[in-house]
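Bit of a strange request maybe. I'm writing a small parser for structure token strings and I need a real example to test against, not something I typed by hand. Could someone generate the tokens for this chain?
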Amino acid sequence: MNNLLFKISRDKKALIGIITITLIILTAVFAPLISPQNPSKQEISKRLSPPYFLGGEFAHFLGTDPLGQDILSRIIYGTRISLIVGIASVIGAGFVGFVFGIISGYFGGRIDNIIMRIVDLQMAIPFLVLAIAVIAVLQPGLKNIMIVLIITGWVRYARVARAQTLVIKENEFIKAAIALGSTRFRLIFSDIVPNIIMPILVLSTLEVGQMILAESALSFLGLGIQPPTPSWGGMVADGRDYLSVAWWVPTFPGLAILITVLGINFLGDWLRDHFDPKLRNI
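Reply from user aminoacidic:
Good idea to test on real output. This should exercise your parser:
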């Protein structure tokens, strides 16, 4: 553990990633305590107020949006939405892909062909097309956004789990376990799962940032989190028509997305290089 912390401390990208993620998590957890305003409170008389450092009020440090809502408060509360969607979607997609990947890699044959053809078919459909089709059926909302991201995200985990299972299955200790009469259930959970879990965890770290970007994109298009719930993508969409007169409305939520995803990717890249460099080509 000490050796791992020492390596992280010597890697600037990993250190920046950990610090960024820690600050984001603390912001989400303590949002009610650090938020200066009610994120849903509208003050039309103060609409499009500039940030404090451009002559605005200190009470609205990053300015206000077209409805007079405090941008800083909405960014702080939007952190919760982004983390919930990102983490929950990764857990759901990772579990589904992990299960189907192991089944495909271990049993092979017709089962493998069916699962992999489904994976190939889904990967051939652009993300937005598939997401819009699913949202059209389920309607926009927090729960449905996570369902969409799980449906669209499980295939990468399935490919990684299948590839790792095919490699592990050919090792001598697996053949020895089969010769000793080990059941399929015991073989999968005692020998295969522990040996392929690390690549899945590394991939999951990288995918959190992608899920946050996907949620922001859907919210920007009006297919994600609906008002008055604060969402970074929705805030950027609200300010796109005011970019020339109130650039701060879309810029600060956009920076929140950039910093969060960049921090997660920095840490994910370091974990990938440290634990499983083979994932570079997957």
